[in-house]
Amino acid sequence: xxxxxxxxxxxHATLLAVDLGLRAGLAQYNSRGRxxxxxxxNFGSMxxxxxxxxxxxxxxxxxxxxxxxxDRKLGEVWEGAAAHRGxxxxxxxxxxxxxxLLLPRKQRSGAKAKExxxxxxxxxxxxxxxxxxxxxxxxAAEAILIGLWAVLTLGWxxxxxxxxxxx
Length: 167
Fold this sequence. Notes:
41% of the residues lie in helices and 20% in strands. The chain is built from five helices and five strands, in the order E-E-E-H-E-H-E-H-H-H.
């Protein structure tokens, strides 16, 4: 369970957020709470997911956390990869991160929440000074927000970049 920490485990620590699915959204954050990469990937099948997770996680040298949202069976694969790498692991429900980041009126329907997630993820991308996407799949957008929720909860980031002060 994520609890607020005073410091990341190292200045090079990273967090990987995953919107689970055979088509998964991935977002990586650094120890300063900045988004450093994001993408959507299609594993296509459970067997390819099991092999593919290793390929996603292996190059992340200073992986400290994997935080996932979605199907438990798929999440167990990521949980095993976290354990293998000595990284912490946690599940977050969509209600949990949405309550923290989306206005109540934007949470009333799944379609409205996905639309808002896209808009907010684009703001996080811009705030992180990354190149904006030409298109952004909803799974990548949600992974970005799952990761933002996690770095805020962990205390890796003091202020929410989506707050009015940062807009």
